[in-house]
Amino acid sequence: MRLHLLLLLALCGAGTAAAALSYSLRGNWSICNGNGSLELPGAVPGCVHSALFQLGLIQDSYYRFNDLNYRWVSLDNWTYSKEFKIPFEISKWQKVNLILEGVDTVSKILFNEVTIGETDNMFNRYSFDITNVVRDVNSIELRFQSAVLYAAQQSKAHTRYQVPPDCPPLVQKGECHVNFVRKEQCSFSWDWGPSFPTQGIWKDVRIEAYNICHLNYFTFSPLYDKSAQEWNLEIESAFDVVSSKPVGGQVIVAIPKLQTQQTYNIELQPGKRIVELFVNISKNITVETWWPHGHGNQTGYNMTILFELDGGLNIEKSAKVYFRTVELIEEPIKGSPGLSFYFKINGFPIFLKGSNWIPADSFQDRVTSELLRLLLQSVVDANMNTLRVWGGGIYERDEFYELCDELGIMVWQDFMFACALYPTDQGFLDSVRAEVAYQIKRLKSHPSVIIWSGNNENEEALMMNWYHISFTDRPIYIKDYVTLYVKNIGGLVLAGDKSRPFITSSPTNGAETVAEGWVSQNPNSNYFGDVHFYDYISGCWNWKVFPKARFASEYGYQSWPSFSTLEKVSSTEDWSFNSKFSLHRQHHEGGNKQMLYQAGLHFKLAQSTDPLRTFKDTIYLTQVMQAQCVKTETEFYRRSRSEIVDQQGHTMGALYWQLNDIWQAPSWASLADHELLSPTNYHFLSSLKEAVGLCKAQITAIISQQGDIFVFDLETTAVAPFVWLDVGSIPGRFSDNGFLMTEKTRTILFYPWEPTSKNELE
Ligand code: BMA
Questions:
Q1: Which secondary structure element, helix H or strand E, spans residue 268, and what is its range?
Q2: For residues 212 and 243, is the Cβ–Cβ distance under 8 A?
Q3: Could you tell me which residue ranges the Glycoside hydrolase family 2 catalytic domain spans (predicted)?
C-alpha cells in the first residue's frame, strides 16, 4: 500500500500535513464482459485483449486470422472495476479528484455506485470531482460501451446527411463509422493494419486530494523577440483554489545556466485560476539553441519554478527548456509559379528528411520504453531528421516527444483525423475542443514539434470527391470542414500556441488553400504546400514519374516483412504468396500483384521447385523492389532541392511512407520487427534481369564478438546484389543491409538490442 502513496507536495515551514496527496489506481483491476459470463483480472494501464491474452483465454491476437476470430472482444461491452482503501484520512481533504490520463474510449464512470461522469474521447484527459462521494473504502467502475457499437449509433443518429465513408474497403476487414468516435482511427483497420478496436484504461489513473490550492498543470513556450533580439519565456500555470480566501505568494523562476532568476508576486482568487508569467532572458547571456539532428546540438536548460504560497505552501516544478524558432516559409520563387513551402529552424532553411510514424502496436500496453527508444534511435542512425506523427494514429506519449527533443528529431504533428469527413454536431465539437486544448498544452513545450497539422488527407478527400458527394451537397461538407479544422482546431492553436505554425491538412496548398476559402481545387498541387504521391503502375526506376513538388510528405511502396517475422504468426500452410493467409494479411486492394509487377520490371521473379524457397525469395524481392523504389524517389526529391525545371522544384522535404509497422503484414514500412533497411548508393546500367554474366554467389560469414557488438566477416565468390543478412527473431540493427557486394570481403556490424550470444546468431 505504502508504495502507492506518493507525496506530491509538501507543506513546508511549520511541519504540518501535506498540501496534496496522490494515490495511484494502477495495477490489478477486475474485468467483466457484458453478460457477466467472463470475469478476469486485468492490468491498468492496459486493455481487454491484453488481459484475455495474459490469462491464456485468447492466443496472440496477431496470429494468423485472429483479428477476425477475436472480433467478439471489441463488440462486447466490458466493465473495469476495483475496490480499494485509501491509505490516508480522506475526510481531511477539501477537494478530491479522480484523474484519468487516458480512457479507451466510451465509458460511464461510477464511484461508490454514484455516476460521476462519462468519457467519449481516448485522446482527452479526464478529471472528475469526487469530494462528495469518496470514502476510506471505495469502489470504482468504468462501464464501457463497445466503440464499434457506439460509432454505429452515433452515425445512425446523424440523420440530416451522411458523413462518409461508412465503412472501410472490404479488403481491410474492418469496422465501420470510425469517424464518429474520437479513438485511434486505424484501430478499426487500415490499409496496413488490423482491426482491433480496444477497450480499457490505457493510461494512468489516480486520486488526487488537496487543500488550499492545487497546481493542475504548467506549460511554457520560449519565444524569440526579433526586434529586441532576445529570448522570452511564457509560462502558464493553472490552479484550483479551494481555500475560501485568496491565496497570495511569490513565484520564483530560475534557469541557473542562463543566470536567470525572476520573482513575481501573485494572488490567486478562489476558483479555477490561470497564472501567466513572462520571463526575460538577458541579451547579454548566450543562449544555445536546439537544433535538429545533423545541424547542431540539442542543448536544453534546466528550469525550476517554485510557488511559495500563503501558509507555507510550496509547490515546485522542474522542466527542461529548449530554445528554437521555427518558421514555415511560403514566398514566391523565381522561375516558378506558386509559393515555396519550407521550414527555417533558428533562421536556417532545413530540408526535412525522414518518414511517417504510425502507432507501434494495436495494443499500446505492449509498447515499451525500450522499443520507442530503439525505433527513434534508428531514425537518427539512418540520418533522418523528421517524423510525421500521422493523423490516423495517436498523439504519442510524453516519452516519445522527450526522446525526439533529445535526439533532434523534428515532429510534424497531425491532429488525429484521417481519410474521412467528420461530423460537427455540438457534442462532437466539445469533445474535440477538449482534446485539442489538452494536447496543445501537453506538447507545446517540446522543441521537436515544429508544426501542427489539422488532419491527414481530408482536404483532398473532400475536394477530389473520394466519396462521390453531389455537387449541390458539397457546401454542407465544406462548411463542416471549415468549422472543424479552421474555426475550432485552428482557433485553439492560434490562441494556445504561438511557437509553431499550423496548417489545416496534409496534403494542402498552405497559403493558397487559405486564399481559396480553406479548401483548394487541387490540394496536391506541385506549386504549393505539400504532396502525397503514390503510383504503383509506372516503373519506379524512372524518376520522371515523381512530382517535382515543394514538399513530399508521403510517398512509398509496399513490401512483405521478412520470413522470420511472418513465421511467428503463421503456420506451414500459409507459406506461399497466394495462400489464404497471404491474401488475408494484404489490406491494400491489389497490393500483392502490384509488388510482383513492380519487381518484375527489373528482376526475374522467384520460381524455385521448392515452394517455400519461392515464397522466401518472393518476399526478399518485394523488399529489394521497395528499397530501390524508395531510394530512387527520395534521391529525386533531394536533387530537386536546388533546381527549378519546367517551372517546378525547390523541394524541401521528403518523408516517405512509413517508418514502422503495427503488425506482421505487407506494408509500406521500412522498419518491421526491429530491422533497419538502409541501402547504399550505386547506379545500375540495366535492369538486373537483363544483366549478363552474373554468377551465383556463395557467401560465407564468420561471426565474432567484440563486447556487445557482433562482427560479420563476409566473403563472396562473385558479385552479389542486395545481400540480405537475417538473424531470425533476434532484435537489433546491422550497420548495413540489402547491399551490393562487389568486393570479395566485407565486414558488417550487428548491434543487438537485447543481450545475445554468438551461438544464437549462428
Ligand atoms: C496515405 C496515408 C495512409 C495510407 C498510405 C498508403 O493515404 O495517409 O492513409 O496508409 O497512404 O496507402
A1: strand 260-268
A2: yes
A3: 343-460
Query: 554 catalytic, yes or no?
Result: yes
pLDDT of 308 above 80: yes
Residue among 175, 457, 459, 460 flagged as catalytic? 457
Which letter, b or e, does each residue of 374-408 get, where b requires 16 or more Cβ atoms within 10 Å of its Cβ? bbbbbbbbbebbbbbbbbbbbbbbeebbebbbbbb
- Lookup: cell for 312: 507555507
- Single out the residue of 658, 747, 170, 203 nearest to residue 390, CA to CA: 658
Q: Provide the β-strand partners of residue 353.
A: 654
**Dihedral of CA 241/246/249/251: which sign?**
positive
Confidence tier at 615 by pLDDT (50, 70, 90): very high
Residue 532 CA: nearest ligand 1 atom is 1
- Side chain identity at 150, as an amino acid letter? Y
Residues 6+ apart with CB under 8 A from 511: 330, 339, 528
**Average pLDDT of span 721-732:** 88
555 C-alpha to center of ligand 1: Å? Answer: 9
Name the residue ranges covered by the structural domains of the chain. Answer: 20-207, 213-310, 355-566+628-676, 692-760
DSSP string, 216-250: EEEEEEEEEETTTTEEEEEEEEEEEE-SSS-EEEE
**pLDDT value of residue 196:** 98
Which one of 188, 657, 659 would you pick to mutate in the ligand 1 pocket, going by the greatest count of ligand atoms within 8 A of its CB? 657
Q: Is 622 in the pocket of ligand 1 (CB under 6 A)?
A: no
Q: Which residues of 32-44 are buried (b: 16+ CB within 10 A; e: fewer)?
A: bbeeeeeeeebbb
**Which residue has the least CA distance to atom 8 on ligand 1?**
456
Strand order in the sheet with 531-533: 502-503, 449-453, 410-414, 386-389, 352-357, 653-656, 552-555, 531-533
Collapse the DSSP code of 429 into the 3-class scheme (helix H, G, I; strand E, B; otherwise coil) and give the result. helix
Residues 472-530 have pLDDT tens digits of: 999 999 999 999 999 999 999 999 999 999 999 999 999 999 999 999 999 999 999 99
pLDDT class of 8 with cuts at 50, 70, 90 = very low
Q: Are 12 and 314 in contact (CB under 8 A)?
A: yes
Active site residue 370: no
pLDDT exceeding 70 applies to what percent of the chain?
96
